[in-house]
Amino acid sequence: MILKRSYRVAGHVFSLSLESGDWIWDALGNYEPFLFGGGEKDLFSLELVQELDVQDKRELYVSNPGPGEQRIDIHTVDGGYLFELAPLPDLPVCGWLKVTEDFSRGSLKTVSSRVFCVNNALMLMYAFRTAGLDTIEIHASCTVCDGRGFLFLGKSGTGKSTHSGLWLKNVPGAWLLNDDNPVIRITDGIPRVYGTPWSGKTPCYVNDDYPVGAIVRINRAPHDEIHRMGVVEGFASLYSSASGLRALKPVADGLFNTVSAVAQKVPCYVLDCLPDDEAALVCSKEVLGNA
Length: 291
Description:
Phosphoenolpyruvate Carboxykinase, domain 3, about 25% helix
């Protein structure tokens, strides 16, 4: 028997359907805080299937992941798109996600690494489906302090999670909302940051939201120094960390409009820093005072 469960993230409802007795339900505890009882139409739905009908496959986007990063390649197919998923660059494809052109319906076939495939399929569909709805999924770590959310951006390995940890250690009242993929949504003209079921290697799945206090890009340096960016520089910093397929105009336009609005409403900074306590003190003193 097929079991369907609905979830609500940043106000957007989506559903997952698969066999009721499938062991994978027990492995998806990260979605439990976001369970939604119904009464609202799904923005998108995902179903696990045994077979996929794929025709007219044409390459659209080939990823170039670094060591230890996942590989996701995208193709156009008859009636939509096909995502090929692999957990590491040198591993074979373990999942195929076929979605409609508007990303409202998806079918996922897996041969291994099923939890990885389900998490990434839902995360991808969420990012692309909500791109035109004042919503952006951000590759960032986010702490909450003084009733506001502070997002730390940067390339992989620059220390986003480390900096959040330094806030938790050194800034009174700071706590972690999400450590990898929070969502920003503009609600009533106010950018708010939301917890999600997707938090990378850190199990942090909080169904809560706060006004965005500041966005900080982390750069490794031999000193601790912070400066505020202008709107254009802030836009570029945020846009580069937003999830979405720029090759698709509706997705790219949605990301552009939302990031533009956020960059004009939220102070954006660059923090050149060491991974030390002083970095958190320098950063928090600046952004808490100006948020």
